[in-house]
User: Fold Membrane fusion protein (Multidrug efflux system) from Acetobacter lovaniensis.
Amino acid sequence: MTTHTFSLRPVLLCTVALLALEGCKRQQSAPRTPPQAVGIVTMQPQPVSVHTSLPGRTDAFEIAQVRPQVTGVVLKRLFVEGSDVVAGQQLYQIDPARYKAVYDTARGQLAQAMALDATAKAKVRRYKKLVREHAVSQQDYDDAVAAEKQAQGQIQSAQGQVESAQVNLGYTKMYAPISGRIGRTLITVGALVTAEQTSNTAIITRLDPIYVDVNLPAITLLRLKRELAEGRIKRQANGEVPVVLTLEDGSPYEFKGHMALAEVNVDTTTSTVIVRAIMPNPQKLLLPGMYVHAQLDEGIDPNALLVPQEAVSRNTHGDPQVWIVQPDSTVALRQIKIGMAIDTNWLVTDGLKAGERVVVSGTQKITPGAKVSVLDSKPKTDTAPGAAAQPAQKGQ
Assistant:
């Protein structure tokens, strides 16, 4: 009987090879994960109205403190507190008795001086003829001429006293120096007022128009000048910078004003420049000292880029960043700079170019370098050129 011996090692090796080959086939046949679908917008330049919104305070266009210029007792008050007065309107009457007496005395002295002058002139005329006939001496004639000149000097002195007395008599009637709204009176009838006193009797404030003073950061002023020089912002047709207000309760102010001036010096403590606007105030709604928000219309940026706010995220340092779809359909994370908010968009100041594609949806599952499929690729043009702008938040 013949016995055959078989080795199991070759069989086991063949089995392992077959199993490995089957595993490779299964791995090759496994489906690949499709690219992440993302929604995008394509950056396109568009004209946008550029605004800067800053807090400010209202200030009176004109203000006058009414003070007496002569001493006396107040006899009458001739205005209603809190009413509107016009320039030249009488406000108070001070007792004029003693000033009237001084004025009358000065007029009497003037009349005396004029009488002496008439006598001196007549004497000179007579002596002039007599001195030629040697009827009077030359010395007498010279004395007569000197007396005439002295009389003329007395007339001028008396006229000055009359004018001074007349001015003081006029000061007993206190008039409004400007037109505006007068506040409460700080003196009553019967009170004694003195000339050149430091306390005022009433205050008149002109409310229409009214100033609005805002503090513009110096860095913002530099940016505006640079953008104007580069042509990114165009000036208004009339050269003025329109200003609109938002009141403290959040309601808009119905009238539009314009920027009047900007200080030439920067406040070293706050690094700001005071910008003053003039606002019409026919209804007297704005009062000095009110807190408002002033929106300065800087002009039109003809090539502005707007990115949707939902496309912007923040890194650990708080810097804004967006996902960009590159030409090879891969995504990359890019840091950008943004300015003000315009509707639901951010105004891009640096980091993006026209034609680049920004991811607005589907960012949860993408990583740098990953391929994506584009769902939407329309230009970002949903904001009108005249859209209102709000200031960017801190950390942009």
In short: The chain has three domains: 36-48+304-376, 50-61+206-302, 62-205. The radius of gyration is 45 Å. Residues 97-132 form the longest helix (36 residues).
